Amino acid sequence: MKYHLSDQERETGIIPSETLKAIAEAVRTTGYAVVGNVVSKETIDLLTGSVLEDVERVRATGKKTRHEENTGEGHLQLGLRRYGPYVRADLVANPVIEAVVAAVLGEGAWLGFYNGNVNCPGSTYQPLHFDRPYSWKTPEDAQRDGQSWPPPTTTLSCSIALEEITEANGATEIYPRSHLETEAVNWTQNRVEPYPDLIEKWSPPARMPIPQGGVCFRDPRMWHRGVPNPASKPRAMIAATYHAGRCKHWRGIYIQDLDPQTLEQCAADPTLRLMDDRTLGDGRLVFQSDVRGVFESAPSRFGINRNVRFIDAPERVNHFQDSHELGGARVVMGEISPEG
Amino acid sequence: MTEIDHIVLLVRDIDEAIETWERLGFKLSYRVHLDDVGLAQAFFILADGTFIELIAPTVQDNIYAEMLRQKGEGLRLLSFRVDDLDEAVADLLQKGVTLRGVGTPRVFVEPESASGMLIQLWPKDRPHRWRDTLEQTA
């Protein structure tokens, strides 16, 4: 599904309810929907410049990033500058994005990941994979929670294009509708290669082109992978990931077996999330305090929790560090550097 | 990539299309409906062992429905036999051809690299699963 916002829709952040329903339905059935003209040209230009500068700094280290080691060379999970003027309301508090998030995940959804995603020239194929596990493993589990089968997603990935993304600069390869493959609910790994019969079933794959300033809303369980960028310059994108309110893990995993006391603690303090070691901790994303006003001046119309906290100098957020590993906790004292 | 393995025609209505091809003198070999993929398929085996495959989307939101909206009915995919899939892929990539599904069992040449036609590379020794079903039921 493709929809292009009018300038008025972008500026007011109001889109027709039928359109909103159609976008949410496309995410549910096809696995994704692309909406154009969501973010202003001014913001896109500013962020593109900063991301490309940061890519140069990362490449100048001469080392592969940890994400490249784990996935494919040339695919960077590059942090975004967490200070002014680079934190913009039409990225972190965009009413159209938040309307779609609420339509897919319900009220109380929260921002769990805000990062750059860059495909550099000379990149390789990533393994075919999906990003999130299924929150319900059997039709009975889903039914008990009032959910349909195949189960709905509890996470929504928003890929914001900082430039025109096409096959010519390595648009992501996707397998539409593969998130409906219920064979995958019990897989312990997120890699699809061990299941060639299912790859055949969901072929042919497609590409995920996104117009500059547009957003691809994607069910992260849909199979996908980064592919080589044949262009001469890096292709820059922003990845913002939201989780349903019922997900209490810091990476948005729905944990059904939380004890009542932990659930009560989470309800009393919405900053708490379950960490990987199953202790409760602060699961918020960290920004410099100079951008506090960006969030506060644009309260969510859709009950979305931006899930942020702010820090002051001399503490800084080192946005070069891999947020896949560190979540929002990337605070350092002093200089920020790709060397960590 | 010199031999055709099969050709795929995209149609709106599988029953109507089967009737059409039977009227033309072709004999239906097998048909199947894949509910979760949202696809109905019908196969007509030809004298030389190649076959014509008719496909009709049964949902509005899969890649075939999108293709139907964009291009209408007609010949939409050519599947060519290759001796060795990996070698064929390496050769095409080296020539700058854009592919989909590299490294998976189903590799396609992007229509932009093939005069608008989606091309599938089919390893010569790979069986077609639906033909196994035919043999079992024969």
List keywords for this structure.
heterodimer, A: alpha+beta, seven-stranded mixed sheet, three-stranded antiparallel sheet, 16 strands, globular, B: 138 residues, alpha+beta
Write up what this structure looks like.
The complex is a heterodimer of chains A (340) and B (138). Chain A is of the alpha+beta class and 340 residues long. In chain A, 26% of the residues lie in helices and 19% in strands. Chain A is built from eleven helices and 16 strands. Chain A has helices spanning 7-12, 17-29, 41-60, 66-70, 89-92, 95-105, 139-144, 196-202, 260-268, 292-296, 323-326, and strands at 2-4, 32-36, 75-76, 110-119, 155-161, 173-174, 206-207, 215-218, 224-225, 235-243, 272-274, 280-282, 285-288, 308-311, 315-317, 331-333. In chain A, strands 1-2-8-5-10-4-3 form a seven-stranded mixed sheet. In chain A, a hairpin with a 5-residue loop joins strand 11 (272-274) and strand 12 (280-282). In chain A, helix 2 packs across helix 6 (95-105). The radius of gyration of chain A is 19 Å and the shape is globular. The mean pLDDT of chain A is 92. Chain B has 138 residues and is an alpha+beta fold. Chain B is 28% helix and 34% strand. Chain B contains four helices and eight strands. Chain B has helices spanning 14-23, 63-71, 85-94, 129-137, and strands at 3-10, 30-34, 39-45, 51-57, 74-82, 99-100, 107-109, 118-123. Chain B has an eight-stranded mixed sheet with strand order 2-3-4-1-5-8-7-6, sandwiched between helices. The radius of gyration of chain B is 15 Å and the shape is globular. Classes of the chains: A alpha+beta (340), B alpha+beta (138). The A-B interface holds A 1, 26, 29-30, 125, 127-128, 167, 173, 176-177, 180-182, 193, 196, 199-207, 227, 230 and B 34, 36-38, 59, 61-63, 77, 96, 98, 100-106, 108, 110, 112, 118, 120.
